[in-house]
Write a structure and sequence with these properties.
The protein contains 7 helices and 30 strands. It has 628 residues and is of the alpha+beta class. The strands form 8 sheets. A 4-stranded antiparallel β-sheet has the order 3-2-1-24, with no helix packed on it. Strand 10 and strand 11 form a beta hairpin. The chain is globular.
């Protein structure tokens, strides 16, 4: 009796195990099938894939089904990559880049001429239907893409063969993710303080072997699931600055050594409620960063988004000094070739704030804050990630975006404020023949593809950039040029890459000595010519006899405001009259104001009347920098 009982128990256990195993295998099969269907949904034509799935379903063995789905998944990945790559295979653009690279020392034109010739023949013959499952068609198309990549990535500017970037593990969100999932702010009006702080899986990585199968080396990974933002490489090429949260969940600026991953906090400040982010190195060893040091809030959201203004930090003395006193955000400080600081400023004061994120520049000590690009224009709404072109006094590359809508990413533009082309824009990349239309629109880049973010200029013709080519693409690292070539360097399923920087030494810009008088309670303001620029356009010289000087008092965090009745495209702030200043016949004026005080000027005629049609309350720093 006992033996029969044991046999019965063994039978029941075995049956249960078999049932469990069968269920587990069926679950694996369903998972593999779902992965294929998810990816195939991004193909322009998925009929072959669906037919193949139906064939796999007729297989009796579960193992055969799983193997079939895995093989099909790889095929879909190949089709997706080709779908994206062939769209940007522009033979004329490749020829132009090839001819240009012949003038760059180190480019082997003889070696790549046969590859160029072969590619021309492939393009001429066409590639057939890449969605048909025909292996010969896929191989031929992949060879063409490989030929394009071989030619364009042979650019000697990539000979260093290392790119520093930030990698985000996105899982099944990889093709739907937008910039905030890569650690940026969640909108176009806030600083890092309003961005998500936890729940990321990010690391700083080094990409190498760029012209073949790209290799990845992790340099640093936070242990608190923080995002990694604002990556900057030091000119020595051996260390990088970035933003992440500390153990108390506040933001700070950190530095990591590339050779061993050693990491340290860069700004040491005892104030328990101050945060620091969006930093940059200065040539003299000091640091500029953004901070909530003004305790101000963005008015149109009742002060719920803290405002970040720039501060100057001296590591040796731990001295901290505020540099900007703006109503709203400063972003992306970077050092220009002449040693000045270029940054984006949201000039909210008395302006149409949907359209007023200008590119500014100043001395590292905060003096001589001036408009570089965008003052007085409704297009574009925002210019982010501006970086100066190597060796050029005024040209820069940047991303234009909207106010609401798509966040932080957008269209890629080359700028030269000294030129009279449309709003100082030289060219949109990669659309050299497209006319730049000054579109006045809140959601400027909604539905626009490709989306770009965080460009890095190699020269005035070649750039690294993070891009998402269409709504179903991954965020990858690309080499882009003025000839319209867009060449993939690296992208990975389940991941997103952002902020590419070549790992190399670069020239250190000159040090600009401080011009401030520490401890002074006053600032001296000199205006060379009040008639210069657009504010008094059409006003006859000699008719401005004086101007009022107004100071502003900005609202603090969590200060309620009446958005609709008071602040829609108008002034939000309390204005305080500091006095009236005489203007000389040549348009010059000199006067003193309280230090660290934002001001605006109102020009008056001989009777003390404000001029009709002039720009009322224009902040004094928003002046043109380049004469015709």
């Amino acid at each position: 009796m006992k033996n029969w009982y044991r046999i019965l128990i063994l039978f029941l256990v075995s049956s249960s195990l078999l049932t469990f195993t069968a269920a587990a295998q069926q679950k694996n099969t369903d998972t593999e099938r779902a992965l294929v269907l998810k990816l195939a949904a991004y193909l322009k034509d998925s009929s072959y894939i669906k037919n193949t799935i139906r064939q796999i379903e007729t297989e009796k063995k579960v193992e055969t089904q799983i193997t079939g789905y895995q093989k099909l998944h790889k095929q879909v990945q190949r089709m997706l990559l080709l779908q994206s790559e062939l769209k940007w295979l522009n033979m004329e653009a490749i020829r132009l880049a090839y001819e240009d690279m012949k003038r760059i020392e180190g480019f082997d034109a003889v070696k790549y001429l046969p590859i160029l010739t072969e590619l021309e023949q492939q393009v001429k013959q066409g590639f057939g239907n890449i969605y048909s499952g025909d292996e010969a068609v896929l191989v031929n198309a992949e060879k063409a893409v490989a030929n394009k990549r071989a030619i364009l990535l042979a650019n000697p500017l990539l000979n260093g063969d290392k790119i520093l970037t930030v990698r985000y593990q996105l899982g099944n969100r990889d093709r739907r993710a937008m910039a905030p999932e890569l650690g940026t702010q969640s909108n176009n009006w806030s600083n890092q303080e309003s961005a998500r702080r936890k729940g990321f899986n990010a690391d700083i990585v080094e990409l190498s072997n760029l012209r073949d199968e790209v290799q990845i080396r992790t340099i640093y990974k936070p242990d608190n699931t923080s995002s990694i933002a604002d990556l900057k490489l030091h000119w020595d090429g051996d260390r990088a600055m970035f933003t992440q949260t500390m153990s108390d969940n506040r933001w700070n600026v950190f530095e990591v050594k590339l050779n061993n991953g050693d990491c340290k906090k860069l700004i040491d400040n005892p104030e328990p409620d101050l945060e620091f982010y969006d930093g940059t190195y200065l040539p003299d060893g000091r640091i500029i960063a953004n901070s909530n040091i003004g305790y101000q809030g963005v008015p149109c959201v009742n002060g719920s988004d803290p405002v970040g203004n720039m501060v100057l930090y001296t590591p040796q003395s731990k001295n901290l000094r505020r540099l900007t006193f703006d109503q709203d955000a400063n972003w992306n400080p970077v050092i220009m070739n002449n040693g000045r600081v270029m940054y984006t400023r949201w000039e909210y004061t008395d302006l149409t704030h949907y359209f007023s994120r200008f590119v500014m520049h100043m001395n590292p000590d905060g003096t001589e804050q001036k408009s570089l690009y965008g003052s007085g224009s409704y297009f574009p709404n925002s210019t982010f990630d501006a970086k100066p072109l190597p060796g050029h006094p005024s040209q820069f590359i940047g991303v234009i975006s909207g106010h609401h809508g798509v966040t932080r990413s957008g269209r890629l533009m080359l700028f030269d404020p000294s030129k009279k082309s449309e709003k100082g824009m030289l060219q949109e990349l990669p659309f050299r023949d497209r006319k730049i239309e000054p579109i006045v629109k809140d959601r400027l880049v909604d539905g626009v593809w490709p989306q770009f973010i965080k460009p890095y200029p190699l020269t005035d013709k070649y750039f690294l950039v993070t891009a998402k080519l269409d709504e179903n693409s991954l965020w990858g690292i690309y080499l882009i040029d003025v000839y319209d070539n867009l060449t993939l360097i690296a992208e990975f399923e389940g991941e997103g890459l952002i902020c590419p920087i070549p790992v190399k030494k670069t020239p250190i810009p000159p040090v600009i000595p401080d011009k401030i008088t520490p401890g002074s309670k006053e600032a001296t303001v000199f205006i060379q010519d009040i008639y210069e620029g657009e504010g008094l356009k059409g006003v006859p010289r000699g008719t401005v006899k004086s101007f009022r000087v107004l100071a502003y008092e900005y609202a603090y965090n969590k200060t309620p405001s009446d958005h609709w009745a008071q602040g829609v495209q108008s002034g939000w702030d309390i204005k305080r009259l500091l006095g009236t200043v005489p203007v000389e016949e040549d348009g010059s004026a000199i006067f003193k104001i309280p230090a660290n005080t934002p001001i605006s000027l109102q020009p008056l005629d001989s009777e003390g009347v404000l001029f009709s049609g002039c720009v009322v309350g224009l902040p004094a720093c928003l002046v043109k920098q380049f004469r015709a």
